[in-house]
Design brief:
2 domains; alpha/beta; Rossmann fold; 52% helix; two-stranded antiparallel sheet
Length: 372
């Protein structure tokens, strides 16, 4: 059974959930939500970001690992009333004054025996005698049968209790809202910007009968490998085991080029006259440099980062290599500044742009060209 709603990016899903959370907090709407998406696409990361963004305690229940009695609690016989009393499980929110998110992960993989218990949580906000406080936001997630994951078809009785969000991998969204803030290795970000089709390849892998596919989660793991494994042979083996042979072979080709040509730290420390010679002469290299500069930007380096970023647009006039004449230098410079400004606003570094001569010259050129 297909999820017949418009697919959205992870960032849009987070925005939608944040709006739903705010509406519930204001007493305007109470609903239960469902994130659909292929494995590794970032559903759990969305929930964790929502919890951090709203200051909520996260109750993370993996439904494949629990039984119905785990939600209902422990029965106890009250001899005075001659009734069975159920002790509330600690896995459910119970503080009416504290914001909380109840995350029912792997809902579609949960045993059918558990689903009736989950129905009460999703629709009536209770299980047995235990009622959830109004401050609890209920959110579920799961994969579909066609995703190659262990899953059951969701029946109409369950699906009707939910607002459904279908999440897909989108390279621009992943780069701006995950990779850059998380400091993903610049080789990964540069590669995905030029090969966005390889961010998520689950459907293609399933069609070919292959076990390993590229996903946002696997690319984050590759970033960790690049940061931690120094031996090239071992590094390449691990990358192939994470991405699959074909994607890994293409990615590995650019990694060494980036490693030898991208010298972001050295450029920030160099004198302005010496920096020009340090710019890489390839699209992958320059793209990786842009991401590296954004990652390195802080209160001590922001001025130098702006200077180095602004110079990208002028490289064809200052470097003799023919490659620079064919590269989209202006576009790359603008893209880099968009990322850098976004980070500066989040970190309180925006004053550096107001006082930077390099940025003023860049902004003036764009205005005179009618690009603002």
């Amino acid at each position: 059974m297909s999820v017949n709603t418009s697919p959205i990016s992870a960032g849009q899903a987070l925005d939608a959930l944040a709006a739903g959370f705010a509406a519930q907090a204001a007493g305007q709407m109470t609903a239960s939500w469902m994130l659909h998406g292929r494995p590794g696409i970032g559903k759990t990361d969305i929930v964790q970001k929502l919890a951090a963004q709203t200051g909520s305690r996260l109750f993370d229940l993996r439904l494949t690992t629990i039984e119905p009695q785990d939600l209902r609690g422990l029965p106890f016989y009250d001899h005075d009333t001659r009734r069975t009393v159920w002790y509330r499980p600690e896995d459910l929110p119970d503080d009416p004054d504290a914001p909380a998110i109840l995350f029912l992960d792997e809902l579609t993989a949960a045993s059918p025996m558990l689903q009736p218990t989950v129905y009460g949580l999703l629709q009536e906000r209770r299980v047995g005698p235990h009622h959830l406080p109004d401050s609890a936001f209920i959110l579920a997630a799961g994969n579909a049968v066609e995703d190659g994951a262990v899953a059951y078809e969701m029946g109409t009785a369950l699906s009707d209790r939910l607002i459904h969000l279908s999440v897909r991998a989108e390279a621009a969204d992943w780069l701006a809202r995950y990779a850059v803030p998380q400091g993903v290795h610049p080789a990964v970000t540069a590669f995905i910007r030029t090969r966005p089709d390889l961010l998520e390849t689950t459907e293609d892998a399933l069609r070919k009968g292959q076990m390993i596919a590229c996903t946002p989660r696997s690319w984050a793991r590759v970033s960790t490998i690049l940061h931690t494994v120094q031996d090239k042979v071992l590094r390449d083996i691990l990358i192939a085991g994470t991405l699959g042979e074909a994607a890994a072979a293409e990615f590995i080709l650019i990694v060494d080029d980036i490693a030898t040509t991208v010298q972001a730290t050295e450029m920030l420390a160099a004198k302005p006259a010496d920096r020009i010679a340090l710019y890489p002469a390839s699209l992958h290299g320059l793209t990786a440099l842009v991401y590296a500069l954004v990652t390195l930007a802080d209160k001590d380096t922001i001025d130098a980062v702006i200077d180095v970023m602004a110079e990208v647009r002028n490289l064809s006039a200052q470097r003799p290599e023919p490659a620079f004449a064919t590269l989209p230098l202006g576009e790359l410079c603008t893209y880099g500044f968009e990322l850098l400004i976004d980070k500066a606003l989040g970190d309180g570094l925006q004053e550096a742009f107001r006082t930077s001569r390099s940025y003023a010259a860049y902004a003036t050129e764009r205005q005179e060209a009618g690009l603002v």
